Amino acid sequence: MRLSGLPAVVVASKPSNWTSNRLISPNLQAAYRKLWGDDYRVYKLTPNADVFETRRVARLIASRRHDRLIFVDHLPHPGKLLEAVAQKGRALPILDFHLYGDFTLHLRNWRALEPLLRKTPVRWICASERQAALVKRLISGAARSVAVCPFPVDASQFSFDPQLRERARARLGLARDERALLYTGRFSLQKNSVRLLREAARFIATSPSPTRLLLAGSFDDLGAPFFGVRQLPGYYFQLWNRMLKSLPARVSRRIHYFGRLDSAQLRELYHAADCYFSLSLHHDEDFGMAPAEALSCGGAAVLTDWGGYTSFVKASSVCRLIPVTRGRAALEFSSNAVQEALRAACAEETRPEERLARASRFLSRFSVDAASEILRTIHRAAPPRFVSFDGLMSRLCAGKQGPLYFPGGPGKNTLYPRLYGAYYSPRMRPSEVLS
Amino acid sequence: MKTKIDSMERSRLEGWFIASGLRTDRVVRPTPPEHQPFFSAVWPMSENYYSPIRATSLLQHVAFKSLDESPLWLIRDGLVPLLWFFRAFPTPRRIKTRLLVHADFAWAVPAAWRDRAGTYEIVSLPTSTLERQRNKRFILAGPFAEAVCSIKSLEASLSKLRAAVGAATLRKAELAAFLPARVASFHTDASEAYHARCLKTILDAFGTSDNVRFIDWNHLRWMDDLSGEFVEFNDRLLWADNFLVHHALSTGGRFAGAPERRLSRSSGRIFELSPYHGFLVNFELERKHFVRPPYEAKRTALTGAANRSFPWHAWMSGVSSRG
User: Cβ of B50 and A238 within 8 Å?
Assistant: First the structure.
């Protein structure tokens, strides 16, 4: 069904500093192109646009009487542009915001928009069901205004190719009976990388079949600002290296670090590996582009039951989740549960036809084509008018300026579970773990 | 799937967000306010980072005795502060510490300090499997000031690079330049034209402005892929252990034009700082370092902008008399 007026999409004119967004934004734009062909307009805005640029784009938007305005990128925050459009004296059109993991980082900016958004039809498009649950906690009467459209995977790059798997495994010298675990992404406290190394090492040491751990990505020291943990550059590598050096040689020689790779090289690794493995508990994990790409190549996955990772289970029978809970001081999960999940994942069928079927099933929900269809359904109906943010939003935004801050960790702050309770396993209560 | 965690496993649980006890304040000394102009001039080369060897600037030890806080220090300063420091403190007196100075300046260590000194260098590790953008992308970075890098020094390093890479290759390459400008704190006819002459030299070497991008700190800091060839805009007279080098090398960059270096056990001990780079440390000075100070190097250091831009005499002489 066609919309009555011309929709407009606002995108960032420069690629984001955040690697995942550099993949997500073009894929989402491709989904919109597929949906509307040339019948929509694209407005570009630099992430740190000044008042003149913002007003120029606002003038163009206001002059063309669009029926809806869709914000595809996480930056720049739409606040300034919407204020400038409203200053032109026109009522705001329908607003659709694609939300990213940094939504909670910018809560104060969103809250400042409340008077402007009031009585405007607004839709919040989340990348996963868990993120939608989190966003619903912050918006009054959110049942119909929050939608889910997964960040799409480019199937032309990430889909299963049996020959490539043969070639990639041969290049890495992987024997037929050998299993390969894979992690790609940032090596960071946020991604729980040292814990991942320890769990993989435990698995390599005890697994009956020979197993290797393949790693690709770069280190960072972003720390955990939500909890007041800041790190000097180079610190996390030292933690990692210390752990690596403490492993017995028979284990450490089965761990291979490839550094930062381009998408063609990553595709090769996804094909060579049997199981993608991530233990991230990061607050920005609203989706998980790397596991989505790995699952698109037909491999299995072992992931923490946290944030957007959970959504992959729906489209993959070989994605296993580790239950996560909120302990007294930290987010926790069981090492035995990790080992058990890795054992099961490594016992999965690796025949090409099996992988092909798994990859196709996954892409039927997570490809650009699939996203285009989901967006078609979403945009068919107008969203309800925005009323207000929830009281939880006010409580989170009260006090000091800057991003949210939960000093002392998740166990010591009552607002933390009210917000991030949506991200961890609902079936597991803290009392079950701590007993 | 088990959901209970037995007591043994509980002790293995690592709180996700709890970093271990190594915090900024334990590894970095505060900067004395009177020396702030110096640290501002050399920023961001002087940015703090986590080093397995405790790193410091000699200006943070004007009380001298504070050097005893650690048995080993990696001295981040360049040649000029080193010369002034050893002039003020020609002997280690009673302190038990060992100072690691940049290998290029081992000759500046006076005889009385020789058994309390060693050297370090920043080196690329041979373990890197990264396919780097060899000779296609260059990154030139450093504070844009005569005291940090003289025109002569820039011309020499670019000419060395041209010889290693080839002039034509260089002119076709992409260059990201991070050159935060600094105002000269002393004035000469040469300093007025310094910035313009430097830019001309850079553009002459790398071609037109089409392939040269000038980037800001925010851009450089969050670039997670610096897998190009790194050109250090720094003649190391003020600052030797450059954060910009660590940043570039830790994300896959290499020193531009530098030949692959074979590191063996006899080269020294490696302290890894990232998967791609580390410190090559020799805890003892070698006989080859016990040479007469190279006249030209000392003259350049003591007559150039690096020496004239800061009140070294006041900073260090005062210390000497107090010490």
Answer: yes
